[in-house]
User: Fold these one by one.
Assistant:
Number 1:
Amino acid sequence: MHWKTKSTAPLAILLYCAACWGSSAWAQRRAVVLSLSGASGPRLTSEIRRALVRQLQLVEPLTYLRAARGGGNAARVAGARAVRASAIVSGNVKRKRRSWVLRLTVHNGFDGEVVGSTVFSLRRPRLDQRTRRKLINTLLRFCARTVPPDAAPAEPAAPAPAPAPPRRRAPPQPPKVIAPPPEPAPRPPKTPSGDEDLGFSKVKAPSPVGDRVNPTADPRIEKPRSKPRPSWQHILDISAGLTVLRRSFNFVDPVEPTQPANYTTPGVVPAVRVDANLYPFAALTRGFWGHIGIRAHFLRVLGLKSQLAGLTGRSNTLIQTLEAGARYRFNLKDDRLSPTIYFGADFGLHSFAIAGAEQAQIPLPNISYAYINMALAELDYPFYASGAFVIGAHAAFDLMVVLTAGDIEAVGDLGYGRAATVGLDATVGLFARYHGWFARLDGFYRRFTFTFNGDCYLEAVVDKDGKVVKDRRCGNYAGGARDVYLGGTLAFGYAY
């Protein structure tokens, strides 16, 4: 009895042989991957070698570099013969704003000519899964066009002999045996995945003697989906910190009283400070509107108590500043290491008040400034950078036009009459940034200058003897006053 069975052994053997032929074809192709130059070059070189180690037979680049002395195609061929490599992979990495540009070039080991070049744009100095797959497929396709350096050039075919003239009444000849044509050389296997999965179009490879490839004009460059926003063009930054300051208030040319109640804080006093800047259109555009924003500033002294003559105990003392306004920023070279200049104007309120000061032996009027703060010159200048870490200097000079100063300008028992008041604010310091986080150390000098206009003596009256005298309508009078604040701030914040 005979059993009829269908055996799958021939099919399995055929598939196994095809797989072995494909793997052996790639394993015989030797390549050398040279170290990439530029920022993050060693890291990306290691990642590229790990990605290609299973696809190609990689050789040590040190032997190649010893043999390939000088430059040009002759040096490449000498180095390729030393390591018997058919492909030479080289390139560089450059940082452009918040992205990294990776350029790779593959040279033929037989003649040193360029067989292909590609460019990738990376958001970080590493290869993600998608970029690694594209890079492998592209480099394997280029390496398939290379020729080993020890391959012999093809010899030209000999011309066919001319046919002999026919003879009359020639005896019948036996039929000629025509040899079958030689089988074509096997082509290298295709890359693991086709170009249709990569999302970029094919590029015609240059001929061994033709024009070289221009990497910057390669249409296969992987452009980011959206143009990255520069690190200096943040949308929001907010910071909080500790301020220490000293306040000094003195009258100039006092008339009545001759020894007025000047004031100085007992040493330096602590204060809390919060700053915030918002550029709402920076997320939508990098043009003019993306540089216009709003600013807010808050400062308040903590736990300050003052002692005045005629009062029992120490009185609570308030020193507080609140400002809000508009800002415009301008980066000179549109780069994170380029200076950024700020212009703007704020409306501010600054208060100084002592509880029960009007009941002191020599009353001290409270002061409440309302002013327009104009940022005449404000500059951030980064002078050192290492990767994402940046250090720079900060300077600002503001002019304050005071609209009113509160109780000190009152016409009465406690006031000194109306005054022309102007202020200035100067700040210098250092800042450090790492990605979005930053720290700032500043020193500041703020000064208000009063010039009383003599309202207390404007009314002229005639006494009973017929003499013209001036009626003093105020309880106090002086030529002017100075209000000075000196201190420093250490603040930490985050910018997005």
Note: The first strand starts at residue 30 and ends at 33.
Number 2:
Amino acid sequence: MFNPWHPMDDIEFEIPARFRVDGYFEDVKLRVVVEPLGEGVITAYTLQY
């Protein structure tokens, strides 16, 4: 993505690199770390048993 406010031409940047998302799937609380512009899902694990 091009940054129009950067003083140099042709500078690209990605914002932000990773997100941590907490949610529920079939009544189990989960935490997922995703990298939307890169690898996709980095890791996912349960927060309760």
Note: The mean pLDDT is 76.
Number 3:
Amino acid sequence: MSITDRHQHSVSRTLVIPVVFLVISFHALADGLARADSRPTDLATLVDQAVNAYVRKDGAAKIVELGPYGDAVLPYLKKYVSNANMDVRYAAAMIAANAESEAAIPILDSTLRGDTAMCDFLFECFSPEIVRNRGGIPVRDNLIWCILHGNGHGRIIVYPLLLTSFRNDPVVLEFLKGLQRMEIVAPSKIVSMPPLAPPAAIARLGAVAPPMSIPDLGECYVVEGHEVPYEFGLHLALANLHQRSDEEAVLWRLRHNDVTSINCTLYCARYVTNKRLLLALVELTKNHTLTDIPKPGTLGGDTMTDASYMRVCDYAVGMLTTTLQVDVGIPDLTAVALKKQPDHYRRITFDSLPPVRQYTEPELKMAYDRLKAAVEKMKDQ
């Protein structure tokens, strides 16, 4: 029974119970209200402690501890949105993302304007529909700005994030197609957007935000010695518009077993709406090539062996079952691998989990059949 219910119940019985009990009920109500009033203050203190701990380089443990409070933490982050210290704003952004609420999007947008970390948070935590509906024009403009000023990882994922979230937006379509012609086609208000201050540690070195430029689409994003050109992200986005040349550019890399491109495409699976590409991703459940993605629970460094990494087929099953929301009738062995690593905001960390086993051949066959059937039933968007 709630505090209010107890109060109403006590009043309804005033004619038949001693007055002393009525007085006690009012005292209980007052105590309850006092406790309720104290909670925001306590939570505000916890938020301050989490931000300060991160800025002191004490890690993100206190940020993770705020997760159960959900979106109740969001009002206490507003004072950090325009803080001159990027480390402070980044801590606030992690707390907002960890709330796992779409109400966090405006805070992420304001806190990390023009920073590719915003792309990571939006990409990891929210569906394209939520990004569009809760982020709106400010987020759209910031994503375009990130492409013009951003770094490697941001440029790879931001293309499918931008197009899928704002699929029918003429500004987005003209901008992305302009990049293929090596032109900047964007409203002047985006082009002239000033960056927020860089992280304090970088600012102390005299660094500034990179100047606006047309991305060098031939430049490569390098992971574990493997290269993925920035243009792959653009191809992946425009393939959702069924532009044949972009479809073929993506499929070529998948067919030639380019592992880093495969990993990148599976990672972006939630933002792939092209049915032909999705069917190609389902075929990856037959691919036993090792990825460069460690299994949960592996230690890293010199201890890594081939057995420490996931296979393409295992990663594909985990990503596609999560993306397509398909029950493939087998245990989800790789879901924890989709979480952010401990330095970031996700609640489950690799180090606290045992290594996962590999899927068996019968399990992979069952997953393949059910995933393929699900995609074939989908309407091509």
Note: The two ends are 49 Å apart (CA to CA).
